[in-house]
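Structural prep section.
Before we set up the soaks we want a predicted structure of the protein with glutamic acid in place, mainly to decide which crystallisation condition to try first. Input record follows.
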Amino acid sequence: MSANVRVRFAPAPTGLLHIGNARTALFNYLFARKEKGTFILRIEDTDAERSTDASIEAILQDLRWLGIIWEEGPDAGGQSGPYRQSQRLSHYHGDAEKLLGEGKVYKCFCSPERLETLRKEQLSRGMMPKYDGRCRNLSEGEISKMESEGLRPVLRFRVDKGTVVFEDLIHGKMNFDSNGIGDFIIVRSDGMAAYNFACVIDDHSMQISHVIRGEDHLSNTPRQILLYRALGWQPPVFAHHPLILGPDRSPLSKRHGATAVSQYREEGFLPESLLNYLILLGWTPSSGEEILPLEKIVETFSLSGLSRNAPTHSRKKLEWLNSHYIRKADKGRLTRLLLPYFEKAGIPVNQQDQTYLIQICGLLKDNLFLLSQVEEYLSIFFDEKFSFEEEVKAILILPENRNLLQTILNAIEGWSEIEDDNTSSLLRQLEEKTGRKGKSLYGLLRAGMTGKMKGPELVKTLPLLGKERMMKRLKMALEIA
Ligand code: GLU
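Run finished without errors. Recording the tokens verbatim:
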């Protein structure tokens, strides 16, 4: 494909970025990268009541966090700006006037109350609601009269009989009977362009070659194609991908848990995990590999490889990918990502030995499938947080274990210090002294030293605690009444 592939992600800034929308952005971004084209971010904020600047900021921030970077957009500028529809109103008026002059759209004065009554009536008769064309053939005189009475019309597109056929890159040939469409609004009574109209004008003037969006827009596409025809323009190529479903196969929504990208970020998912997850939803690389960092996805991605079947959200899979990427992250980055959770748990990280913090992060990464889980383990490493879990206490007070704890304490007293390179031999000596091995020794050791039943690898944890602290905790364990 040629270098003039131009695609866009066009969110309405009326809330947080949903993972379903992030997936649409990702497909567009990947397609642009793959085809050496341009990825554009366009903000569809013609709904002034529901759109907010805060939402625009949040969407930009979430996309950047994911690494989905646009070449043209509200902050990046570009040849087709501005990239906020609220700043493009003059672009829409000229074409609306032109269509009106040609009789392809008409002024409609029907009140919202009349339209609502019509809709209810049609529904009660089992019909698909659509405009009945009452204002289709108003005379000039009727129009001027209503306008002079102060009535403000909407502009409706005249949908004539016929079919709209287009080739969807994911669904194949799509066929719509225009009879089911009904004359639709292109400019609202406040003069604001409606979604379908603004979208067509912008996609055309931004020279968008491919429109990749969710299947929920399939019913808009015939309307948009009719507008392209009326304006004498070539429509872009369309690709409508299936939407993500919840485990109960209904569209993914808040009742299924987190849906916003920012919620996943706060919980401690890494951007690469979320990206890898989103791409696996509905796309299986030919190699069958599931661990796919962005660069690898770019190499192998194709729109035609997207499944027509709706994918089901699986939090388990996302967590699995996250534990993989946490394990793979380098120590420096991981520490930077984890320290905010230390602070949240009340550990003043600036007053701590930085090497110690890095070591803890390096050790704990194998135990996490979410960054935020690090908080569960901090009690092991910071005395002010340390305590024995109830289950652990019950084990530590058993008489046979108390004897064993005492033997261990006596042995440790004789150590000079426990370090990474002598831990194994010290533990072997302990096995000899106690005559125990495996779980019966190490389970107890873990319980006494960490206060927990489960946790990071013991051999690596003990040198981080050091001899003094190990003894102190064993004494505490022996004092449990
Ligand atoms: N603003 C629309 C949405 O957020 C964009 C649809 C499109 O891509 O044309 O769903």
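Observations: The first strand starts at residue 6 and ends at 9.
Flagged for discussion at group meeting.
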